[in-house]
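User: For my dataset I need records formatted as: sequence, then structure tokens, nothing else. Please produce one.
Assistant:
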Amino acid sequence: MKDMIHDMIYRFALLAAVVASLSGCRGWLAVDSEDRIMEEELFKDTDGFYTALNGIYVDLVNENLYSGTFGPSDPDILAQYYNTSADNHSDGSLALYQNEAKRLAVSNAWTRAYLMILNANKILEHCETGKGSILNETDYNIIKGECLGLRALLHFELFRYFGPVYTVSPGADAIPYMDVSDPQVKPVLKATEAAERILDDLGEAESLLAESDPVRTLGKNEEDNGGRNLYSYRNLRFNYFAVKALAARVNMYLGYSANREEALRIAEEVISEAKDFFPFSTRDEVTGQAAIGAVTESAEDRILSSDVLFAVYNVRRGEDIHEKYFSNTLEATRLLSISANGYRNMYPEESDLRTYQWESTKDVLGNDIMSFVKYEAMEVDGKNYPYMIPVLRMSEMYLIAAECHADNGENDLAYDRLNAVRTARQTSSVSTNILSNIESEYVREFVGEGQLFWYYKRNNTKSIPALYDRSRPNISVSTANYLFELPQSEDGFRD
């Protein structure tokens, strides 16, 4: 039976992948009778629903999603974190915003994300047929709420790539919005329409999870009950607070005054409701002392996991991310690293807990570099942080609130929220240059998490610092550099 269920999940994925690669087929691909029998078997009980949902979570760690294109690689290369100036560096063209490099970098993400969206839609459809008869109210609310949240999340990741700089061209084309499991060809929506659909999904997800998500009373609930653990480890599921945090991020990205007011409202609600459940990491936690009783490099919590609202879980994180992008054993044409100069400018205070994400070493040519070790492989008994890739965290809510308060002329509140992050990361408080200091925190806070480039895009930033070596001049960026073309197969078909 277990093999049959796993095969059913595979068939879902395969069907979506075929459709994505053959988008010119108007209509849909038929599902044969064997597939339908297996589908009925999968969704005949609550365990089957959770098995199907877990299949989506498992695939979020794909290299074209959160182990690469949506997280530690492409957005951070575009944000100029890493030195790609070596001759024939594999990411040099991408760092220069060349169109073909951008197209190639994200084309597979399009296919993979829509594959996951179609799978989420399949579960959503079965939620309606199984409500009451198979799913009790709690399971219905949680499964449907998580699926709607994940659908919004994946659409928004694509929206940030393929949509316009929103405050410049909100009426420009963005992405299709898939809300059915049949692999139909959907029209490309205007950015305003796509944004509305994303926020609608998040609104419905919030309402459902508000009723049933134990995260509101138990927090992460990181207790292994020895069974299905359906309501545990809520920081590894798209929980109620993650839904609200994403809504704040989306509204902040849209950038108009009404959106920023909404972003502020939601961010402050998340801070108020979730800060005790998702506190900032202590130095003992970061150094590993809290985990095993002694300061030790092999147990360092380098992702500062305590305030992470939602993370994907990759047991091969070291191999899939660190060894692929950041290991100092990589050839110079593949390595992503920064100089000591870049590191010192990024972290002017040695006390900063985020310095644990870096290590002074040499590359294969013997050059001194700072190697990014945030995702290096490690094992710590009873801890999940060695496998987590952060997607949403509390610190972003504080930075959103700080920026919005500053917009409103509420400087005392703005500095309060900003300095909450700085104090938590064990750096000194500031009382001037609020917007500049907020940007500096985006630079330090989200390395390897892919958020800085989108901060630049939503602000249509025209001059980006070469973070890998601040002795180099800033990089001039045009609005066009922030735009990504549809994948060739999709674009060609629609043309």
